[in-house]
Amino acid sequence: MNTQSRMASDTILMTPSTISFTTDYGLSDGFVAACHGTIARLAPQARIIDVTHLIPPGDIRRAAAVLAQTAPALPPAVHLAVVDPGVGTSRRPIAIATHGTASHPGGSLLVGPDNGLLIPAAESLGGIATAVHLTNREWFAAEVSATFHGRDVFAPVAARLSAGASLLAAGEVIDDLVRLPHPFVEQTPRRLIAEVLTVDRFGNVQLAATPDLLPSTALALTVETVEAARTNTFGDAPAGALILLTDSAGQLAVAVNGGSAAALLSLTPGDRVTIAY
After folding, report:
1. Domain boundaries, position 13
2. Mean pLDDT of 20-42
3. Where does the S-adenosyl-l-methionine hydroxide adenosyltransferase C-terminal domain lie (predicted)?
């Protein structure tokens, strides 16, 4: 990383400050409230946008996809994300500054564990400008629990950054971030095989493939062993019909008009779906 990009990332200041918050903490315990309280004490001016706290426990890939697909719709922010099955181990706590995009010209910041969670969101926000291993313990809680870094490490760091503190004061610059494996996508003649990225609460199945991988003339397809139609909207097919469409994140998705494609095809994230055309 060059000096110019480091300097640029060091001057990011959110006004008004915003912190987005994504976790697998759920809503039945006090974990989310404890993190909110930490932020409120250190950065009372910060506005917190809760993305979701219902990520399946430990599902880093799901959290990464949700954050990457949501962050561009949010204002420039400090994106605090904690899905951290390796909490308390040798995995590093990190913060990332992004280059920015046309809608986020000043860039954004991301805070969380170095387990691949933050990388897709950073890429959706213009790419990584600077990454820092959080080693400045003065920014942490006075006592750091081995099992709750969300409250004791990540929330305090996010609060300080949202208040305009220097990213480079948070720790040491690094360039060897952990990345998630690329999801499986394979094309063969008249066949596309793609990994399931996510399944939403409606049972819509988002694939790792993008629409350009299917010929525009491929309107009648078979998904697994079920006939499907390629449509623009859910309502373009009869109720109960299996369809393939482009979702709001620009990915190919398998859906059922008025039903659940995940239930119909018995699909979960990580499964591979075969589309014949």
Report:
1. 3-174
2. 98
3. 194-274
